[in-house]
Specification:
With 251 residues, the protein is mainly beta. It has 2 helices and 20 strands. Helix 1 crosses helix 2.
């Protein structure tokens, strides 16, 4: 990493392959700002606007549009050109009436998938962990860095706490109202979000829990075969059908 023109940058040759950076962009490339997503698993907003959507031709024009507030991520205006847009995030460009979701992909790691306006008002968030906070309430810590507080009437019998790690919430954006819980269990539909089988979609046919975070595995059935992946590489996207539009599969 170095500084170029007063901004933190990456050398183009050191950037992740999924960023799909072409030679014409020169030696340096914008570095994603610190945020909820890993710097290796997100797309800087300016890169999306200039290189993937090709709305403008250069850095200066892209920055001007971003600062002017033309882009929303998860329903909120983002004016930081380095903002990290990551897994399941929704990018909206209201002036063009265009909406996109960031999805895992076998060829590029991450892709920008166009979705309908109806689908742009919600996102799926995986519960990575949860903890008990003051008053006995439950805090759900989600994969995209956000937290949701579940109020509990009686901490001794927390009937409101029906959530488990690896379950996925369908929430409204930006309000964060929970509309549905997708349980991490067999027969539900999942997408693989990391590893050599990233982007693969199918039905969970077996969950094998072993001691240690890297030991537990999940078997996913797809196209007549099945793939085994790590527990934490699995992201539930539906029950009988996917809650979100996914390229190359029927919902």
């Amino acid at each position: 990493m170095t500084r170029h023109g007063g901004q933190k940058t990456l050398k183009r040759l050191n950037t992740p392959a999924f960023l799909q950076i072409k030679r014409k962009h020169g030696k340096f490339f914008i570095k994603p700002a610190p945020g909820p997503h890993s710097s290796r698993l997100c797309l800087p907003l300016l890169h999306i606007i200039r290189d993937l959507l090709k709305i403008v031709d250069n850095h200066r024009e892209a920055k001007k549009l971003i600062v002017a507030g033309h882009f929303k991520v998860d329903g909120k205006v983002v004016r930081n050109k380095s903002f990290p847009v990551g897994l399941m995030d929704v990018l909206s460009i209201e002036k063009l009436n265009k909406h996109y979701r960031i999805l895992p992909d076998s060829h590029h790691g991450l892709i920008l998938h166009e979705i309908s306006e109806e689908e742009s008002v919600f996102k799926l968030c995986r519960i990575n962990n949860k903890k008990i906070v003051k008053g006995g309430h439950v805090q759900l810590n989600l994969h995209d860095g956000r937290n949701i507080l579940i109020k509990v009437k009686d901490p001794r019998t927390p009937k409101e706490d029906i959530y488990k790690r690896m379950d996925v919430l369908k929430i409204s954006i930006p309000e964060q109202d929970i509309h549905k819980i997708l349980k991490f269990k067999e027969n539900n539909i999942a997408i693989i979000v990391s590893g050599k089988n990233i982007g693969q979609v199918g039905k969970i046919i077996n969950i094998l829990k072993k001691f240690g975070p890297k030991a537990s595995t999940v078997s996913i059935q797809h196209n007549g075969g099945h793939t085994e992946t790590l527990y934490d590489y699995t992201f539930i996207i539906g029950e009988e059908n996917s809650e979100i539009d996914i390229p190359n599969i029927e919902n």
